[in-house]
Amino acid sequence: MQMELYWQAVKRNDARFDGIFYLGVKTTGIYCKPSCRARTPKRENVEFFPTPESAEQVGLRACLRCRPRDINIVDPHIVKLIRASELLDGWEAPNLKLLAAELDVSPFHLQKSFKEIFGVSPKKYYELKRMERFKRELKSGSDVTTAMYEAGFGSSSRLYGKAAENLGMTPAEYKKGGKGVKINYTIPDCELGRILVARTIKGLCNVAFADDDEELINNLNQEFPNAEIVKDAKVLKAFVDEILKHLSGKENRLDLPLDIQATAFQMRVWDILRKIPYGETVTYSQLAEELGDKKKVRAVAQACARNRIAVVIPCHRVVGKDGSLSGYRWGVERKRKLLEAEKNL
Q1: CA torsion angle for 275, 280, 282, 287 (degrees, to 10)?
Q2: What is the pTM of this model?
């Protein structure tokens, strides 16, 4: 998460991070400070360094434009927040009061400023880092139990309690790439053409529109290549009935169980989407502001675009700042019809 934080600072030319880290660009052989106004390099060509010396040790030269060695003052506020993240990485459990005392700041100030910079609270940051460690252990070949304890989960109940939110499936299923998961689907008609509704034993994993069944089935197979996919309209009847009633305007609210894979940021965006009232819209910038960072408009738009649960996660209710419909995974015309139908009821 810290590397992602650094990369976002580079894209913003954020001078608050000058002296905190330096970015080296492999293709040019030059290192800069985060606020450098040179053209932003590609992410895969960037490496981060804690000091100018560490960058020069691998053969990089100081940028003549931003002069990265000419930094006299490092933002103490950012230093404390980076230190807070480092402390959390080594703790067995997050404690806001102890963390604030360690940094000589108030708990309220720490909570607010940490979320402003990292996008999540200290507690959420700790949970995400722990889950990242768990995933790395699994990918390196560890069994689930070993990975669980190496990542700091004291019991399997705590791990599985977080698994659905962070993995979209159980840890064992994640390790096998979803192999062994059974997915039932059906494809009925609806007001917007053909609609595929698919579910695992835990909840909906795919809801999609198209003009023909072949496209829908191919997309489902591509998304879940290792799953056992079976057509079964009977198993999905209750889900389909609710969705079709919603599309016809007979049911304004959809509160169906989901089984989805997503990053923590996508989960936050999708959670807000599900709270947008029927018949109303919000802009991408309003969503970004609600998430605590007005500059994350593009990230919000990408999270909406990656939604695979049409209507139930109502990304169609997000519009451009000027009211334009912009993109929609299942076609702008379907988005227009959905919004018109909701406003007319």
Answers
A1: -10
A2: 0.53
Residue with tokens 């963390």: 99
Query: What are the tokens at 291?
Result: 């998430």
Instruction: Provide the token pair at 262.
Output: 């997503």
Count of other CB atoms within 10 angstroms of residue 338: 22
Residues 128 and 147 in one domain: yes
Q: Which of 117, 36, 51 is nearest to 84 (CA)?
A: 117
The answer to whether 237 and 188 have CB atoms below 8 angstroms apart is: no
Q: Are residues 53 and 98 in the same domain?
A: no
Determine whether 304 is an active site residue.
no
> What is the DSSP annotation of 222-278?
HHSTTSEEEE-TTTTHHHHHHHHHHHTTS-------B-----HHHHHHHHHHTTSPT
Catalytic residue among 32, 36, 63, 304: 32
**Residue 160: strand, helix, or coil:** helix
User: What CATH number does the domain containing 34 carry?
Assistant: 3.40.10.10
Which tens digits make up the pLDDT trace of 168-218? 555 555 555 556 788 999 999 998 999 999 998 878 899 999 998 999 999
Give the range of the structural domain holding residue 32, as residue numbers without chain letter: 2-62
The residues that bridge with 258 in the sheet, in sequence order, are 204
Q: Angle at which helices 297-305 and 264-273 pack, to 10 degrees?
A: 80
Q: Are residues 165 and 141 part of one domain?
A: yes
Low-confidence ranges of the chain (pLDDT < 70): 1, 92, 135-179, 262-264, 345
Could you say which of 63, 66, 205, 315 is catalytic?
A: 315
Q: Could you confirm whether 315 is annotated as catalytic?
A: yes
